[in-house]
User: What shape does this take?
Amino acid sequence: MHHNNIMDTPSKKPYISIMAHEEEEEMQHDISKLGDQVQQILLSQRVTKNELEVMTNVNMDGLKRNMEGFKDGLETKMEDLKDGLKA
Assistant: This one.
């Protein structure tokens, strides 16, 4: 007759200290906060393809304008520098 050893062994409940319990609660809180953040990100990413394209185009236009402005400013500075060297 074969005995099942699992039944013979008394179940050992893990000893949880107060400190570990507090850490566990803190972790649960962090995890739920993380869950909320993920939820927010998922919601904010639910933009339609068109909205995404419009946003991209607006950003690209703005970027181009900034680059042109930067270039103009740079050229002006270069001119001022050359004038300053001539003087």
